[in-house]
């Protein structure tokens, strides 16, 4: 199962937690070993020689050669008890005479439980730079196939999905962006009290967002919390410039000029404040960058 999940696009590593293999544990009694004049090394050597899996020899012919292999590993705890460790007074010393043989685990200090039941946990980590939302969606799409291959009595459940908070935060930012657009259009309609000005603001916002999404798609960027927050703040800049432009056009029309002439003259007057609006935030952004660099230098020096 871990191998199949590691083949999903965007998955970097799949680790197994709690998957402890069964083992036979031999608990030596030092006092009993000492009474027979034996040590732990004698015990280890006897156990190693009694349980061997490897080639036993080879048969060489005129045209072919065969290797003889046999598995002599002991898998039964009772068989381990009958291993001869040494001979004392012409009598064999068995493993059961100097140690206890019990069934256990390779590491009895590691385990995993889910809802009070023993479990095996698969920790799926994404590749650096991969989209976490897309990666999790691809992994979830593989779960029905994996469940079909499980034996009876074994269930496959999701223990923790960290993309829930990411999806919720993105959903909140999207709602904030939609509400800000609606409020901007409403404020323009209330204060300017003209349908044409409201339509201009209502059209300028979606067009600017669509153009931004097009540039992001062309550059290969994806939406995240930072980009959505920037779009929300950028909405205010777009409306600010639109209101300045509409106000200048209305002022020229009130002087008796035609709408076309007012539309040509208004940008000349509003170009200066509109172009300066992004630089209003420059001192604050510079201070923030300096503080962040200073904090990074302090943390590096403290290390």
List keywords for this structure.
303 residues; Multidrug efflux transporter AcrB transmembrane fold; two-stranded antiparallel sheet; 11 helices; disordered C terminus
Task: Give a description of the structure.
With about 300 residues, the protein is α+β, with helices and mostly antiparallel strands. The protein has two domains: about 1-55 and about 70-150, Multidrug efflux transporter AcrB TolC docking domain, DN and DC subdomains, CATH 3.30.2090; about 165-300, Multidrug efflux transporter AcrB transmembrane domain (Multidrug efflux transporter AcrB transmembrane fold, Up-down Bundle), CATH 1.20.1640. The protein contains eleven helices and ten strands. It has a two-stranded antiparallel ribbon. A hairpin with a 2-residue loop joins strand 8 and strand 9. Helix 9 packs across helix 10. The longest helix has 30 residues, at about 165-190. The chain is rod-shaped and about 125 Å long. The chain starts with a helix and ends with a helix. Mean pLDDT is about 75; it is low at about 270-303.
Describe the secondary-structure layout.
Blueprint: H1 2-6, E1 11-17, E2 22-28, H2 30-35, H3 40-50, E3 53-60, E4 65-71, H4 77-81, E5 84-88, E6 91-94, H5 95-98, E7 99-105, E8 113-114, E9 117-118, E10 121-126, H6 132-148, H7 163-192, H8 195-219, H9 225-254, H10 259-276, H11 282-302
Antiparallel strand pairs: 1-10, 2-7, 3-4, 5-6, 8-9
Helix pairs in contact: 7-8, 7-9, 8-9, 9-10
């Amino acid at each position: 199962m871990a191998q199949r999940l590691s083949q999903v696009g965007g998955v970097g590593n799949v680790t197994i937690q709690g998957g402890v293999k069964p083992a036979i544990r031999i608990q030596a009694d030092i006092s009993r070993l000492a009474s027979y004049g034996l040590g732990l090394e004698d015990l280890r050597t006897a156990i190693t020689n009694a349980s061997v899996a490897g080639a036993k020899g080879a048969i060489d012919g005129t045209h072919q050669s065969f290797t003889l292999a046999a598995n002599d590993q002991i898998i039964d705890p009772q068989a381990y008890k009958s291993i001869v460790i040494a001979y004392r007074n012409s009598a064999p010393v068995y493993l059961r005479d100097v140690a206890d043989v019990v069934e256990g685990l390779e590491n009895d200090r590691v385990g995993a439980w889910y809802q009070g039941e023993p479990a095996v946990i698969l920790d799926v980590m994404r590749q650096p730079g991969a989209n976490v939302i897309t990666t999790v969606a691809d992994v979830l799409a593989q779960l029905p196939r994996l469940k079909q291959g499980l034996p009876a009595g074994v269930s496959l459940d999701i223990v923790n999905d960290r993309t829930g908070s990411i999806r919720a935060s993105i959903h909140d930012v999207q709602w904030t962006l939609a509400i800000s657009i609606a409020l901007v259009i409403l404020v323009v309609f209330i204060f300017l009290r003209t349908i044409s000005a409201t339509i201009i603001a209502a059209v300028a916002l979606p067009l600017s967002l669509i153009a931004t999404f097009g540039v992001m798609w062309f550059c290969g960027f994806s939406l995240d919390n930072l980009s959505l927050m920037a779009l929300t703040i950028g909405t205010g800049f777009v409306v600010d410039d639109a209101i300045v432009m509409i106000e200048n056009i209305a002022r020229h029309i009130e002087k008796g000029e035609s709408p076309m002439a007012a539309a040509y003259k208004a940008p000349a007057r509003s170009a200066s404040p509109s172009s300066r609006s992004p630089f209003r935030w420059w001192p604050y952004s510079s201070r923030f960058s300096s503080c962040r660099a200073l904090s990074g230098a302090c943390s590096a020096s403290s290390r």
